[in-house]
Amino acid sequence: MCWAGRMILGIFKILLVLVHASAACEFGPSPYRTTGIVCRMTKPAGLLLNQETAQVIQAAFRNAKFPNITGERSVRLLGKVAYGLTNIQVNDLSIEKSDVELKEEDAINIAIKNVTASFKGTLTYGYAGAWFLQLFHSVDFEIESSIDLQLNIKLMCQEDQLAADASDCYLTFHKLTLHLQGDKEPGWLKQLFTDFISFTLKLVLKREVCKEINSLAQMLANFVLDLAVNFVQDKDIIVDLSLASDSVIKTGYIESHHKGLVLYKNYSSILSDSAFSPSLLTESRMLYFWLSEHTLSNLASAAFLDGRLVLTIRGEKLQALFEMEDTEAQQKVVQMVFQGTSYNDSVAKVWSLSQPQISLQPEGTVVKSLVAVEVSIFPAEEESLVVLYMEKEITVTIQAAYAEKKLILQPLDSSIEFKVFKCTSDPSGNDPSIRNFMQNMISVVGIPEVISSIESALTSLMSNKGLNLFDIINPEIITRKGYVIVQLDFNFPHHLLLDFLQKKL
């Protein structure tokens, strides 16, 4: 989760986000006070992403719409010489190397070295002197060039969103040679045209290539921002990725800070003081996400308000829960609860009665909630009958991990306190066997089953948002008092960029 943050996830792609920004944002005196989500991309990640820069630059050159170049000049003895270059197109293009540098409190510098490009088109020229007849000629031409490209990208805030100003764009020409009709040794007239054209051609190439880079960057920016917003939004639940403070550029990392407010219909979480400090994150991994307890707790509240904390269990899963141990006591309880009805004609419903309380601690995420369990049977040709109803306060500590493109939630310590217990087979409540069995069943298999369902649902949600398309390496989810840190390395999915460029250009 960052601006970028598919969620999560946008300094992650900041080298692709080169949009123009026209206005700054106003922040309070404390740079981190209202931060709910932080994203840090370190220098190794920037170097990896910079490998994709060549694809963007090549696309910018190939997609640039070069205008016709015309000119006229008076030449002694020849009179006025007019020329025009039309149908200019890029033929061959290669890039020798690309370097990236983070300049503290200044900009991201990208240096593209030795862009070798060949341009082809048609040259039309004419001249009329005092003793020459007016003549016009039209020939094919080829321009060989060798260019260095320098981009200085400054991070800015525009309409509360992270943006980057890439208008600082320079082209340095090491070679610019005009060949006419394939002739590699131009005569004096052809050399004359080269002298005329070179200066104008350099200006046109610089203007059009830099303009195309910016245009392509804006498309990439919108694409990445759409990814980030989509990742932290599911139906009516939205995480606000507005900037909470100015972004930071250090020599070793780039960092963006976001409010992380949770919005749901007419419900909105409020800003709270943040526990974030830059010292909480290091520079040993490529990518870091810092999430506050406040943001995660409000996400759980929104899920509750949206009616998502409901689980229905039936059939084989229900049977597995109630037959976790093959004992006489267990068989007695099953007979009493289900009254001889088949599991296929029964259903258990589990739901949260109140908004869960989330507490982040070094040992894991502590979840406390008042939960209801209702077991119903469907006797033949009769309406459903509730045979068991319980309300209990459950506190469970969960450790999270992410491996093989799946979220893994491991329940640790748990406690159960019954608030309400009703069973039709024991209306007086004098038989403790059912309550004791349910206490054991909930602890041993009930809580893991519910957490497994949440685990599967969240994995499916993240995969639908596209997280499974990224090659995430050795991710770690570290909980501390009041916050959680996600740190990882990654390989960039090269095909995603190619697919995007093919669709847009």
Automatic annotation (TrEMBL):
GO terms for biological process: cholesterol homeostasis; cholesterol metabolic process; high-density lipoprotein particle remodeling; low-density lipoprotein particle remodeling; phosphatidylcholine metabolic process; phospholipid homeostasis; reverse cholesterol transport; triglyceride homeostasis. Residues 281-488 form the Lipid-binding serum glycoprotein C-terminal domain. Residues 1-24 form the signal peptide. Gene3D superfamilies: Bactericidal permeability-increasing protein, domain 1, Bactericidal permeability-increasing protein, domain 2. Keywords: Cholesterol metabolism, Disulfide bond, Glycoprotein, Lipid metabolism, Lipid transport, Secreted, Signal, Steroid metabolism, Sterol metabolism, Transport. GO terms for molecular function: cholesterol binding; cholesterol transfer activity; phosphatidylcholine binding; phospholipid transporter activity; triglyceride binding. GO terms for cellular component: high-density lipoprotein particle. InterPro entries: Bactericidal_perm-incr_a/b_dom, Cholesteryl_ester_transfer, Lipid-bd_serum_glycop_C, Lipid-bd_serum_glycop_N. Belongs to the BPI/LBP/Plunc superfamily. BPI/LBP family. This is Cholesteryl ester transfer protein. The gene is Cetp.
